[in-house]
Specification:
About 35% of the residues lie in helices and about 15% in strands. By secondary structure, it is an alpha+beta fold. A hairpin with a 5-residue loop joins strand 17 (about 570) and strand 18.
Length: about 575
């Protein structure tokens, strides 16, 4: 047995380590993913005002800057049975939708594309051929399509390389034989890499319109904090601001239709074998999101029965049966720490529902520097969530499969047409490249829905409905002595849940179960003694490494999940000594 270690996995949010065991042929027989930093936001939340939860938990991540906030305000609203106005529901959908398309484009071009695109190879490209390829791949595109444009991009790349300062391109496995794109397509992808940098800066403005800023826009329990006015100049959400939102959504749709979707399909054609590699556990979970309607004409509770992305469970690839999901059922959602650096007061091997969850750090791993972790003991700062004891994959593939299985016509048409274009069956989605393609398809689905939400908001305003916040339960004096709630969100990376227990107006317990916890959690053992492997580890098993010193294959599959590990909250030295402590009043 040989071991291949990737630490850190780069081009992700946070710190992730992969230890892969290979046989004599270089095939991975067992993989172990380890989150190598402590999040600890749950500890910070103790005894705080629940109305502030969104601001603290938002800092869990620097990439999905709005996701935790929406989950947090929904948790408090669920606990207090606190309805929000219609406009607030729509604006939250628009903010979350903008987060999706921004996140998916950034993932494809700036985090994942370099696993498939040999940037240095683009120096050998003929810009004229690249321009012809662009016209073939995206015939409706009218800008940035000339040979002169691609020649200019190639010159920029040449200057990077000749200066010896490749920056973020410096440590790629350039020249690796697993790169299969011709130089002209590599140049095309590099040009769109640069375009996407400017595009993402533009789409972030939608968050600034509704939330005042990006990253980390503002939120409030009971609605949204942005006032609406029919008078120009009174607030940011006036005719001018709404017009800008419409322009941004159209810009999103154009980029996805003319650049992102065609590029994904073009690159996928060169890697058909990756539609047969990298399947995870075969089980898929969605909490559901993007509420489409509200139950009544007045103030509205969140309608979980009518979500764009439905809530449910898919087991063993069976798309004909959707199993129900209850976030409050202690037998359904549970977290285990049997192989994590945490302790539970009820015993390390006892699973806990998030309402009863505990965050008691106890690092028992080796002191750095070290060669390997004890992957048969505790080896990660990530807990292991399970649904009825089963490991579940979450993320865009889960979203697309759930939409497809429940009869969403636009999804079915898009999936079927894309698979016909690639000459692939539906089961090709259960793969590394399928996961990547699903993220692209989802971006188009969400972008197209956003314009409908935008029209709804405009119609409400034109009819005189300007309400964005409900003050009724904002005062803690109106709250019950004890309450608990589950806030959910389908973040760009998958199912996100926040569970809060409120006692006497303060947060008594808070637990966040994030998408990467579902996908990257350590292995567990069921009651019968069977090993339950998480999606990352399951997806890596069976991979053949061309060169263990350049494990490009590992990066392709791990990046297809788009890992996002929570930001660290403290620093320790090589001896485990605390270096700094920050006290937040």
């Amino acid at each position: 047995m040989n071991k291949v270690v990737v630490d850190p996995v780069t081009r992700i949010e946070g710190h992730l380590r992969i230890e892969a065991e290979t046989d004599g042929s270089g095939i991975i027989t067992r993989a172990s993913s380890s989150g190598t930093m402590l999040r600890g936001i749950e500890v910070i939340m103790q005894d705080r005002d629940p109305r502030d939860a969104w601001a603290f938990t938002q800092r869990i991540c620097g990439v999905c800057t709005s996701s935790h906030s929406i989950a947090a305000v929904r948790a408090v609203e669920d606990a207090l049975q606190y309805p929000i106005p219609e406009n607030a529901r729509i604006i939250r959908n628009l903010i979350n939708g903008a987060q999706y398309v921004h996140d998916h484009v950034v993932h494809f071009y700036h985090l994942h594309a370099l696993d498939w695109v040999d940037v240095v190879s683009a120096l050998k490209a003929d810009p004229t051929v690249t321009a012809e390829a662009q016209k073939c791949i995206s015939p409706n595109r009218t800008e940035n399509i000339s040979a002169a444009y691609f020649s200019e991009v190639q010159t920029k790349l040449k200057n990077f390389v000749e200066s010896g300062q490749l920056g973020i391109f410096k440590n790629g496995y350039w020249g690796h034989p697993e790169y299969k794109l011709p130089p002209e397509i590599n140049l095309l992808a590099f040009a769109h890499y640069l375009e996407a940098l400017g595009w993402q800066r533009s789409i972030a403005r939608l968050h600034a319109v509704f939330g005042g800023r990006n990253p980390h826009p503002n939120f409030v329990v009971g609605g949204v904090p942005c006032a609406i006015s029919n008078e120009e100049g009174d607030t940011r959400i006036d005719g001018e601001g709404l017009s800008l939102v419409g322009e941004l959504i159209r810009e999103v749709q154009t980029f996805i239709d003319q650049v992102y979707l065609p590029d994904t399909l073009a690159i996928a054609r060169f890697y058909p074998e990756w539609f047969k590699k990298g399947e995870g556990v075969g089980n898929f979970l969605t909490f559901g999101d993007f509420p489409l309607t509200t139950p009544s004409a007045g103030d509205h509770l969140l309608d979980t029965d009518n979500l764009l992305i439905p809530r449910g469970i898919i087991l063993d690839r069976d798309l004909t049966t959707i199993h129900p999901l209850d976030l409050n059922d202690p037998e359904q959602i549970q977290e285990l720490v049997s192989h994590s650096w945490y302790d539970y007061s009820v015993g390390k091997d006892t699973p806990l529902h998030p309402y009863d969850g505990e965050t008691n750090p106890n690092y028992t791993g080796p002191q750095p520097p070290f060669d390997y972790l004890d992957v048969d003991g505790s080896y990660s700062w990530i807990k292991s969530p399970r649904w009825r004891g089963k490991a579940m994959e979450v993320g865009p593939l889960s979203h697309v499969l759930m939409l497809f299985a429940t009869g969403h016509e636009a999804t079915q048409e898009l999936v079927n047409s894309s698979l016909r274009d690639l000459k692939l069956p539906l089961n090709a989605l259960y793969s590394t490249m399928g996961r990547t393609a699903a993220r692209t398809l989802e971006a188009k689905i969400i972008a197209d829905e956003m314009y409908g939400w935008y029209d709804q908001l405009n119609d409400n305003i034109q009819s005189g409905d300007l309400r964005v916040h409900n003050d009724e339960f904002f005062d803690p004096a109106t709250w019950p002595a004890q309450a608990r709630g589950a806030g959910f969100l389908e973040a760009p990376r998958g199912a996100l849940g926040h569970w809060i227990v409120i006692e006497d107006g303060k947060t008594a317990n808070y637990q966040a179960v994030v998408p990467t916890t579902w996908n990257a959690g350590p292995r567990t053992t069921d009651a019968a003694g069977n090993e339950i492997t998480g999606p990352y580890d399951a997806a890596l098993a069976g991979h053949s490494l061309h060169d263990p010193n350049q494990p490009l294959e590992i990066l392709r599959t791990i990046h297809s999940f788009d890992p996002c590990l929570g930001c660290a909250v403290h620093l320790v030295g090589p001896d485990g000594d605390e270096l700094i402590q920050v006290k937040v009043q």
